[in-house]
């Protein structure tokens, strides 16, 4: 029986050896499959991270661009507000000049105005009282008519009128005044 037992032991030993070999091969194949899967997951994870970073970068750039645009709009609005305040202040200063300073301004304006022979000057009641007699002495014809204007005058030549009131000049020259003010303040 010894021989029979030896054969059984050999068969069992061979079976164990073959089973171990099969398990080792299966384990190696499983490890290969697992490593391949891990490598694939790692590669996909890296690609997804790159895509996510690119998208995040795009979104950040968009947010930054939007914030910069908003900041520029706010700065522009503030500059326009300051320009309006300066222009309003300049008009107020013109209206609060001393009588002598005001006369000098009006005379300077008259030199540049379109005043033809036969034209007459129309002032506000206040300005006519202040300037009327002095301008008559200089040869200007002063109208008996007065207007509700804040500083300046109107030249009337028949049916044609040229408005040189401060308000009219500032309205007509608004864009140039704003540009000049902006250059002085912000350049």
Strand order of the largest sheet: 2-1-3-4
Would you count the extended β strands for me? 4
Overall morphology:
rod-shaped
Mean of all residue-level pLDDT scores: 87
CA distance, first residue to last residue: 115 Å
Percent helix? over 70%
- What radius of gyration results from the CA coordinates? 48 Å
Q: Number of helical runs?
A: 5
Structural domain tally? 2
Proportion of residues in extended strands: 5-15%
Characterize the main sheet: 4 strands, mixed
Structural class: alpha+beta
Pattern of helices and strands: HHEHEEEHH
Model description:
This protein has helices spanning 2-95, 99-112, 125-137, 166-172, 174-186; strands at residues 120-123, 141-146, 154-157, 160-163. The protein starts with a helix and ends with a helix. Strands 2-1-3-4 form a four-stranded mixed β-sheet. The chain contains five helices and four strands, in the order ααβαβββαα. The longest helix is centred in the N-terminal third of the chain and has 94 residues, at 2-95. Strand 1, helix 3 and strand 2 (141-146) form a beta-alpha-beta unit. The chain folds into two domains: 1-96; 98-186, ATP synthase, E subunit, C-terminal (hypothetical protein PF0899 fold, 2-Layer Sandwich).
């Amino acid at each position: 029986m010894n021989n029979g037992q030896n054969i059984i032991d050999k068969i069992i030993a061979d079976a164990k050896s073959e089973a171990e070999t099969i398990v080792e091969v299966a384990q190696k194949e499983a490890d290969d499959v697992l490593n391949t899967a891990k490598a694939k997951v790692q590669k996909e994870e890296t690609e997804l991270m790159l895509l996510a970073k690119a998208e995040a970068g795009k979104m950040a750039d968009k947010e930054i661009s939007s914030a910069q645009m908003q900041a520029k709009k706010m700065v522009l609005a503030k500059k326009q507000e300051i320009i309006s305040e300066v222009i309003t202040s300049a008009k107020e200063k013109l209206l609060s000049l001393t009588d002598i300073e005001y006369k000098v301004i009006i005379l300077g304006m008259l030199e540049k105005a379109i005043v033809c022979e036969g034209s007459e000057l129309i002032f506000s009641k206040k300005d006519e009282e202040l300037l009327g007699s002095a301008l008559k002495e200089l040869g200007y014809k002063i109208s008996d008519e007065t207007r509700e204007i804040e500083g300046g005058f109107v030249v009337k030549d028949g049916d044609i009128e040229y408005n040189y009131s401060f308000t009219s000049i500032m309205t007509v020259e608004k864009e140039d005044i704003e540009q000049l003010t902006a250059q002085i303040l912000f350049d």
